[in-house]
Amino acid sequence: MNLSEKPTHSLILKINGTDTILKIKPWTSLLDGLREYAGLSGTKKGCDHGQCGACTVLVDGKRINSCLTLAVMHDGHEITTIEGLGTLENLHPLQAAFVEHDAFQCGYCTPGQICSAVGLMNEGKVKTEDDLREMMSGNLCRCGAYSNIFDAVKEVINHKTGVLL
Amino acid sequence: MMSDFSFQRAKTPKEAVILLGLHKDNKVIGGGTNLLDMMKEGMTDSHEIIDINRMGLNKIIRNEDGGFLIGASVTNTDLAYHKEIEKHYPLLSKAILKGASPQIRNMATTAGNMLQRTRCYYFYDTATPCNKRNPGSGCPAKTGVNHIHAILGASESCIAVHPSDMCVALAALDAKVHIQGAKAEKIIPFVAFHKLPGNTPHLDNILAHDEIITGVELPANGFAKHHAYVKARERNSYAFALASAAVGYELNDNLLGDVRIALGGVAHKPWRNTEAEIFLKGKLPTKDNFRKAAEIILEGARGYGQNDFKIELAKRVVVRALEMAINNEVQL
Fold this sequence. Notes:
The complex is a heterodimer of chains A (about 160) and B (about 325).
Chain A: E1 9-15, E2 18-24, H1 30-37, E3 56-59, E4 62-65, E5 78-80, H2 93-100, H3 110-123, H4 129-135, H5 146-161
Parallel strand pairs in A: 1-5
Antiparallel strand pairs in A: 1-2, 3-4, 3-5
Chain B: E1 6-9, H1 13-20, E2 27-29, H2 35-40, E3 48-51, E4 60-62, E5 68-71, H3 76-80, H4 83-88, H5 90-97, H6 102-107, H7 110-115, H8 121-124, H9 166-172, E6 176-180, E7 185-189, E8 212-218, E9 227-232, E10 243-252, E11 255-264, E12 271-272, H10 274-280, H11 287-298, H12 309-324
Parallel strand pairs in B: 1-3, 2-3
Antiparallel strand pairs in B: 4-5, 5-8, 6-7, 6-8, 9-10, 10-11, 11-12
Helix pairs in contact in B: 5-9, 10-11, 11-12
């Protein structure tokens, strides 16, 4: 069957606060929709199978793997990517903490790590250091910067909640 | 590369089953976390994908009998952290939180978790035979890399295991499954939903092509006082079980009452053995009795080489869970 026979869908995603119209085929993942159609390449494709977390974005404030969902399923949803979290002049606290703690080497997993940490803070379930490790386990770092990622996220949680992990 | 397909949204369960029935390769999508994975591996053909996430099945409702009805689209996260579920069914919450990652749990649905496919390597590798993916082609796992495979209830056709943690708790809790069919609705026991491989390993469960799960019903007793979920795996987070146990029981004057034990990671379905549960009833909650119950459950277990260790591991997981349930200890 010719691929072009299947209808193109027109959907509206509120990406980083801006209503964005995407005209896509149904098999386009949210990840590909963001990178290839919305022009937002901050979200990274790592494994493309939900194992590494590099593609993590926030949908209505909740962190998900954008590689394992179809863009067409998110018509009307609010999507936040790394591009929506801060600016060069005014970094998001997690971005600043990642710089401060040198929480990366190559940086490829970093957008996913930071979006995941934002989602983690929205959830408010982390009470201990072990909780933090467990709740960041969906994000792999091939360079092994885990201890610094841990320190960066922990600092922001402590600063925000005033409760020391 | 995902196969090409059309997409539409069903408004009601009835509409969803009608749309499913229009083509053998029509599929419903919940969270999509396993379905898209399989599509990308080229394992499955899809004609039309039917989104069932906007049919109002994302609610958890209290029933008149004190139980709860969990909508099919309720996410694993929403279920695990639901205040009433945490309070009355902590075994279910704990089992869910031992599975997958926070991102996956935010997407994966209750029905989707039940319908996820095995993580047998050969099933996902289209270059190899697999009776589950391609009936009649053979099972390389039996003599191959099989350290994650079944030790109970397997067949010559298939030694794959069901990968869910949530389902192990639901089996222990004697949940029920609500199903919408083309003609009627039905309710079946959770333990009768998944099936053993037999000579039809391509079928994981009893759901017909034109049926969907609409919800899961929890009976009133959630064994909140004495329960535990113990999971043994190859790393301590974001890994499937080598063996797991969901247990719950009543304890009156230090004697065991109603006992539930379900195992995960050991069979093609969550494994219940009522003989072991009956054995424990009326007995003291001692390690010796728990070990005897574990021996009953694993009687007849068979390893395939690399997974021989699972037989002893499963026994120890059962004993550990039963011991931890005395004081509701939590596995870290």
